[in-house]
Design a protein that fits this description.
about 0% strand, elongated, 4 helices, mainly alpha, about 120 residues
């Protein structure tokens, strides 16, 4: 489930980016922009061993985010796609909000739920 949500959020990132630049948001356009980040995301899952602690912000989420951003940008460079400084900043920040944000929100909700249950059982 966590890996699926990461994948969906990478697609959302790409779709928002393409839309904001008035580029086509069809399958081919999204695929050409998304593939470097999807490949890097998969590498991030492997590097972080995400199946052990898929909801953890640290180290799982941070490793996935770092590998996705770094690997995705590197793959864009070697494949001849553009990598302007502004894009690097937007990709880094947006993917941090997406890939770390949902994990942090889940952690906070789980902690709050746990406290509520502890309060009810006292």
């Amino acid at each position: 489930m966590a890996a699926f949500l990461d994948l969906v959020l990478v697609h959302v990132f790409v779709t928002i980016g393409r839309s904001s630049h008035h580029e086509t948001v069809g399958m081919a356009g999204i695929g050409s922009t998304a593939w470097p980040f999807i490949v890097a995301l998969a590498a991030g899952w492997l590097v972080s061993l995400q199946w052990r602690h898929p909801l953890a912000v640290w180290p799982t989420g941070v490793a996935i985010w770092a590998v996705t951003v770094g690997g995705g940008l590197l793959l864009r460079v070697v494949s001849g796609q553009g990598v302007q400084f502004a894009f690097v900043l937007v990709a880094t920040i947006t993917l941090a909000v997406f890939l770390l944000g949902w994990r942090l929100a889940t952690l906070l909700v789980m902690r709050r739920s746990r406290r509520r249950v502890e309060t009810m059982t006292r």
